[in-house]
Amino acid sequence: MTIPIYQADAFTDKLFGGNPAAVCPLDEWLPDATMQKIALENNLAETAFFVKNENGYLLRWFTPELEIDLCGHATLASAHILFTELGYEGDTICFDTVKAGTLVVKWDGDKYSMDFPSRPPFAADLPEGLVAVLGGKAPKEVLRNRDYVLIYDNEEDITGMTPDHSALAKINTLGVIVTAPGKHVDFVSRFFAPAAGVPEDPVTGSAHCNLIPYWAGKLGKNTLHAYQVSARHGELWCELKGDRVVMAGKAVTYLKGEIYIPAS
């Protein structure tokens, strides 16, 4: 059998920027093990799979190592492919997910706007060894939700980090977010998740579910502009709306083709 595959760069308007995600539209779910193998073969931070339902689409995301509970850039990429490649009509898509509820993506003619759950981080103890594997500078604040969130003084603290990814994979967490005020935007960040098979994720929507409520509180405003300062870079326009966050970004299509699945 064959299934279609697309790849799009999310949170950017420039090809080879932002965060690449694979997108596989399905008529029905493949076995979980097959979807995991496809994600491993793609070797991208996430591969998204979706199936049409009465509300819109059921959506799931896989890293090369595991199925994940929430992914922003692959959701944006999935919406982009539906709108630009698959003839989706209308300006709003609802994605139903198992662990993150319903995620709504709207096309406003310039950017895709995604409505996600807010996940404010709470105070936490610094895991033993984490500072050393990130490069040796201690954060000014340590928080956690699903991932650790480490707060630093300035953008150079973030861009100058050279983590030891092998050692970081041994820390008991899915991911580590590092963040600081930006020089030209409200805040910057990077995201490391080697335990999930993603040494550094170029642009991470789920991390901003933590970052938006934190920086909204710190800066005293609900509308924020953010950059993820990985090598590929990514730009997000953000808003805190009660217990939800809105993240807007752009996307470009890189690839479309077919995957050949052998008969079982």
From TrEMBL:
Organism: Mucilaginibacter lutimaris
Pfam families: PhzC-PhzF
Presence of the UniProt keyword Phosphoprotein in the record: no
Lineage start: Bacteria, Pseudomonadati, Bacteroidota, Sphingobacteriia, Sphingobacteriales
Protein name: PhzF family phenazine biosynthesis protein
Transmembrane segments: none
This protein's record includes keyword Isomerase: yes
Record-stated family: Belongs to the PhzF family.
Coiled-coil features, chain-numbered ranges: none
Origin superkingdom: Bacteria
InterPro entries: Phenazine_PhzF-like (IPR003719)
Keywords: Isomerase
